[in-house]
Design the sequence.
């Protein structure tokens, strides 16, 4: 992973250890560190845990590349400051005024709002919430954050992989809008479900039976039968990953060739 | 660019007599994986292994040469190998994984590597993608129907092959064929918008067209692919000769690749005109109408 990040920063040709430190410092000097906030709505903290699984680069990331200015579990700050970017984890409960207020405030104070993880992006398994439980039986309606505020970028995944988080952060630091474009486009994809494969791929004569959807499903709700995805809907958490990873949903040709050196 | 970006193209075959006997063509996929396993360049490979029904493959994690060889030969139907990659890493605990993939499967893997949204710690474990040329694929029921049309039952079939305008079936005592125009309507429709014939995004791509019987055409594409292929040649497990540039060599390959792309571009344009989704650009939006974008 470290190699991948270095590649992004154009460091791969430099001598190993030394280059890494010097270059990171250089990047830190040349580019103002983005001020990053983290807002935790109705999520499970799995997305921020996934971020922390970038073991190799985490120390560099947190100390040299970004500044974490706000966020439960990350910073002891009560008042929400101005932020360049806010990662919002979790969907928002319409009956919880604090959640709604915090989301609105984050929108006001952040340059970029990122739906961080599938709960924020698509609602994910909170789509199944229907209230009726103690201590707040009225807490029944959970929606992806794009239903309430303008979202700039979505990183789906339940959780998003550590690698995509690192790649996204680096792309943000480098202003690599080409890399971020699919995540900008995914903002509109809020009503996700495993059945999208049927509606948007198989029904549209696009499925080629490669199995990428079944491989990427994070709950094993998908299998392949006679070369087509078969969904066990009771296992589907509506994270949207299967359709997002399908090579027939969107196709980043230029980026792939660049990554492969082709 | 009709044949994708590559470092070198050669005609090659496995030097192993056993592999030559069972391979579809030059045995390049088998030879490369066996060599990579022996040299510990990979610790397993996802291949299209035998399934419950004759000629209906199942993706399988092969961790020995015997298992690799059990998967030799082309099956003209789906083997969702990409599905098995996660199992290979999570359940088999493999760190350096090889896989054989047709172009669309390669596309699924490469997209996952560039954008691993929900796919944790898998992208960097793919060590070798051996891509195979692919004109189109068939649902299993189609394949059964084609065998029935030729009056042969699946368990008697020893080899299937598409070439020289025909679908060929070899049994122990005869060779049957069906003109390709009689297979139309049996192809998978998703193949009709595919712009990749020669596995343009694989590490090493191989296929039959462009080389004589018993040999394969091989493209080395990525640095990783070039390194492994060269090492296998140096070790003597694969022999190579200069590729035929002429009518039955690269010219033929270029012609077929161009035909596939042109046909797909037409279909993409047709679909776009109807308002149907396509992951690729239409020909009118491209600088190079044949580019795989």
Sequence:
């Amino acid at each position: 992973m470290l190699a991948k990040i270095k590649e992004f920063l154009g460091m791969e040709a430099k001598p190993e250890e030394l280059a890494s430190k010097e270059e990171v410092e250089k990047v830190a000097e040349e580019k103002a560190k983005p001020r990053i906030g983290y807002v935790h709505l109705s999520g499970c903290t799995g997305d921020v845990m996934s971020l922390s699984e970038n073991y190799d680069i985490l120390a560099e990331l947190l100390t040299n590349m970004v500044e974490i200015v706000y966020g439960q579990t990350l910073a002891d700050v009560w008042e929400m400051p101005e932020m360049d970017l806010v990662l919002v984890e979790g969907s928002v409960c319409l009956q919880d005024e604090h959640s709604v207020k915090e989301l609105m405030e984050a929108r006001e104070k952040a340059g970029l709002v990122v739906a961080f993880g599938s709960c924020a992006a698509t609602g994910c398994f909170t789509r199944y919430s229907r209230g009726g439980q103690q201590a707040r039986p009225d807490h029944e309606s959970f929606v992806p954050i794009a239903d309430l505020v303008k979202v700039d970028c979505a990183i789906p995944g339940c959780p998003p992989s550590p690698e995509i988080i690192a790649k996204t952060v680096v792309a943000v630091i480098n202003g690599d809008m080409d890399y971020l474009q699919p995540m900008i486009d995914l903002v509109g994809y809020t009503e996700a479900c495993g059945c999208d494969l049927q509606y948007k791929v198989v029904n549209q004569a696009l499925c080629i039976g490669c199995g990428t959807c079944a491989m990427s499903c994070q709950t094993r709700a998908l299998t392949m039968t006679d070369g087509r995805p078969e969904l066990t809907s009771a296992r589907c958490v509506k994270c949207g990953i299967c359709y997002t990873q399908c090579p027939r949903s969107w196709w980043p040709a230029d980026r792939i060739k660049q990554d492969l050196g082709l | 660019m009709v044949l994708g970006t590559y470092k070198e193209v050669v005609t090659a075959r496995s030097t192993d007599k056993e592999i030559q006997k069972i391979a579809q063509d030059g045995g390049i996929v088998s030879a490369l994986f066996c060599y990579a396993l022996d040299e510990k360049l990979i610790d397993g490979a996802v291949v299209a292994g035998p399934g419950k029904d004759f000629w209906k493959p199942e993706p399988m994690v092969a961790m020995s040469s015997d298992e690799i060889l059990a998967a030799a030969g082309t099956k003209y139907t789906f083997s969702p190998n990409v599905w098995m990659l996660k199992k290979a890493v999570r359940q088999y605990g493999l760190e350096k994984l090889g896989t054989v993939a047709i172009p669309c499967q390669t596309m699924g893997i490469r997209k996952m590597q560039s954008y691993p949204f929900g796919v944790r710690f898998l992208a960097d474990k793919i060590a070798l993608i051996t891509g195979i040329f692919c004109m189109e694929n068939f649902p299993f029921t189609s394949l059964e129907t084609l065998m029935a049309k030729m009056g042969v039952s699946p368990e008697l079939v020893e080899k299937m092959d598409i070439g020289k305008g025909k679908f060929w079936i070899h049994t122990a005592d005869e060779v049957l064929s069906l003109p390709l125009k009689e297979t139309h309507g049996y192809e998978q429709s998703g193949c009709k918008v595919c712009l990749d014939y020669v596995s343009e995004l694989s590490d090493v791509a191989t296929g039959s067209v462009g080389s004589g019987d018993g040999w394969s055409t091989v493209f080395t594409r990525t640095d990783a692919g070039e390194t492994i292929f060269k090492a296998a040649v140096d070790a003597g497990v694969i022999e190579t000769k200069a590729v035929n540039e002429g009518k039955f060599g690269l010219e033929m390959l270029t012609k077929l690749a161009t035909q596939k792309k042109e046909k797909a571009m037409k279909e993409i344009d047709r679909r776009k005109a109807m308002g149907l989704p396509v992951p690729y650009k239409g020909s009118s939006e491209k600088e190079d109408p044949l580019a795989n974008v």
About this structure: Chain B has a mean pLDDT of 96. Residues 8-136+196-276 of chain B form one domain.
